[in-house]
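Lab notebook: predicted structure, single chain.

Context: the supervisor wants predicted structures on file for every construct in the current expression panel, including those that have not yet been purified. This is the next one on the list. No modifications to the sequence; it matches the entry in the shared construct table.
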Amino acid sequence: MVDPVTKYVRFRKNGITAPGTLDGDGETVRELRGDIFAGASETGATHRLSEVQLLAPCLPPKILAVGLNYRSHLGERKAPEHPEIFYKPVSALQDPEGSIVIPAEATNVHYEGELVVVIGKPTHNVSVAQAREHIFGVTCGNDVSEREWQNGANKDLQWWRAKGSDTFAPCGPVLVRGLEYGGLLLQTRLNGEVVQKQVTSDLIFDCPTVVSHVSRFVTLGPGDLIYTGTPGHTRKMSPGDLCEVEIEGIGVLRNRVVAA
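Prediction complete. Output recorded below exactly as produced.
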């Protein structure tokens, strides 16, 4: 039996933060109480989407990401033999419509539009087949990256600030459960221009393979995020730019770029 598609949100209204689901009309939020990963129930309250502030759809205990996972992004580099994983700190999380803040010393900050996997239950040493049952859903993400700190002449030993500066992990606007995520169109737009366009079926390592690999070494838990890699080429963003990551069936993650 195919699970119905459900769009989960996390929102703030009148100083109160709550989870919810988005109605089929896309304009109404049904408020929930409880943990969406453990079972949440409707409160009976509804809100117009235009009247709430959408937040990152969950608060992840951990954020991981995959590098070099589309051949279009490899350039001259050899395809990896297994998923190449790195961490982004939870403090890098940013809400949909929140600002991407360029640090004062940064000179070359790039967008990276990505499909993001959300883990639904404790996941340790699972097979690829088992991993599918541990993926709660998917959302949009932007793995914001400072290329000089990552790869420049004076690059850091670790990607702690190149990939992990505050606001460098926007995600949302919704967390979609029940969506077949293996062949979705991903597009990134910078000031309305399409700068990345690819389908998720082109991932070198698909979502279950990534989850299985990570789980061999790091136990994943409900709400953990895995950014699955970016396609094609990226380029510098500047204060005033508007970056949008759109994934078919999920929606548009929209963030304005500002200077610190």
